[in-house]
């Protein structure tokens, strides 16, 4: 009897508590991820904190939040991270690709993984890296994947690659017509 293979769900979510050793708390989220961080933001109300929301955040009710468009996101996130003191705890919520991009930016600027808290994406999208054309894009979890760039049908590997910030998609082979036939094209 074979054990069922489980699909690696990518980076795991961390606990929903503030990091007590941090002197500064930085919350970075897409508009949809704001709800996931709202409890933590409320807990940090008396602490030194900063909130950056990318996209729409109409349900925020957070006076000190800074809002920016998706087009300005990379520059705004970089600016906020550069101004953050060394003992900052970073809390990130949003889609998987957004979380990975913020985490990679923070790592590049010298923040450690223990300082970065990641929260579950708000959608059923996941990032897939195409090994044929070397591009990444987001796809729905329960649909077939066809690369948006090279239009090849992809088979998504079960393991998540932290290096790529994505699941790896390899060119899918067509189904073999006969079980014993090696696809030589006789």
What does this protein structure show overall?
- This protein has 186 residues and is an alpha/beta fold.
- Helices cover 18% and strands 29% of the residues.
- It has helices at residues 34-43, 73-83, 96-108; strands at residues 24-30, 49-54, 65-68, 88-93, 116-118, 125-130, 136-140, 145-146, 153-161, 166-171.
- Strand 6 and strand 7 (136-140) form a beta hairpin.
- Mean pLDDT is 76; it is low at 1-9 and 181-186.
Total helical segments: 3
Secondary-structure element string: EHEEHEHEEEEEE
Tell me the CATH architecture of the largest domain: 3-Layer(aba) Sandwich
User: Mind describing the biggest β-sheet?
Assistant: 5 strands, parallel
Query: What's the pLDDT, averaged over the residues?
Result: 76
N-C termini distance: 36 Å
Q: How many domains is the backbone divided into?
A: 2
- What is the CATH third-level topology name of the largest domain? Rossmann fold
Instruction: Enumerate the strands of the largest sheet in spatial order, edge to edge or round the barrel.
Output: 3-2-1-4-5
CATH top level assignment of the largest domain: Alpha Beta
In angstroms, what is the radius of gyration? 20 Å
Q: How many runs of DSSP E, i.e. beta strands?
A: 10
Principal-axes geometry comes out as elongated
Summarize the amount of helix as a percent range. 10-25%
Given as residue ranges, the uncertain stretches (5+ residues, pLDDT < 50) are 1-9, 181-186
């Amino acid at each position: 009897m074979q054990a069922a293979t489980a699909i690696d769900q990518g980076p795991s979510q961390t606990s929903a508590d503030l990091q007590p050793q941090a002197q500064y708390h930085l919350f970075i989220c897409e508009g949809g991820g704001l709800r996931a961080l709202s409890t933590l933001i409320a807990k940090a109300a008396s602490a030194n904190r900063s909130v950056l929301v990318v996209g729409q955040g109409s349900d925020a009710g957070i006076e000190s939040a800074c809002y920016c468009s998706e087009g300005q996101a990379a520059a705004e996130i970089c600016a906020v991270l550069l101004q953050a003191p060394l003992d900052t705890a970073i809390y990130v919520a949003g889609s998987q690709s957004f979380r990975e991009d913020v985490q990679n930016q923070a790592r590049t600027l010298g923040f450690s993984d223990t300082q970065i808290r990641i929260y579950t994406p708000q959608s059923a999208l996941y990032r897939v890296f195409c090994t044929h054309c070397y591009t990444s894009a987001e796809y729905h979890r329960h649909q077939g994947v066809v690369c948006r760039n090279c239009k090849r049908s992809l088979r998504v590997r079960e393991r998540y690659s932290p290096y790529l910030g994505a699941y790896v998609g390899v060119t899918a082979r067509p189904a073999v017509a006969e079980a014993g036939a090696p696809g030589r094209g006789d």
